[in-house]
Amino acid sequence: ARDRPGLAVSRSLGDGAARALGVIAEPVVTVHQLRAEDRFMLIATDGLWDSLGNDQAVKIAAKYIERNLQQVAVKALLETVRREEGGQLVDDTTVILVTF
């Protein structure tokens, strides 16, 4: 397992001391225009993104989505995080997979 900072973001929003350290309550928002070749959207907490890179997570999800196995895709992502973290989920790891 990797060392992680001890910041509980959900508890730090609006916290004056945390704000002084750079914690902001405003989300970072990006926009993507859907195209015909887009097949899914993967939304997850930092428990996933701290352990897997974008390309790795997309590759894992796509492998199962191609076979119409969305629930298996989510389970595979969580199990990959667990392996990366030494056999446990050490952080909140929530995954939402939206298919088109």
Task: Give the SSE map.
Blueprint: H1 9-12, H2 16-20, E1 40-44, H3 46-49, H4 54-65, H5 70-84, E2 95-99
Antiparallel strand pairs: 1-2
What tags apply to this protein structure?
100 residues, alpha+beta, flat
Polypeptide structure, described:
With 100 residues, the protein is α+β, with helices and mostly antiparallel strands. Helix content is 40%, strand content 10%. It is built from five helices and two strands, in the order H-H-E-H-H-H-E. The chain has a two-stranded antiparallel ribbon. The longest helix is centred in the last third of the chain and has 15 residues, at 70-84. It is flat and about 50 Å long. The chain starts with 8 loop residues before the first helix and ends with a strand. The model has no long low-confidence stretch (mean pLDDT 84).
Low-confidence stretches: none
The coarse overall form would be flat
Tell me the helix content: 40-55%
Q: Which strand order do you get reading across the main beta sheet? A: 1-2
In percent terms, what proportion of residues is strand? 5-15%
- How many individual helices? 5
The overall average pLDDT, rounded, is 84
Find the count of extended strands (DSSP E, 2+ residues). Answer: 2
Compute the separation of the termini in Å: 34 Å
The run of helices and strands is HHEHHHE
For the report, how would you describe the main beta sheet?
A: 2 strands, antiparallel
Q: Which class do the helix and strand fractions yield?
A: alpha+beta
Give me the Rg, rounded.
16 Å
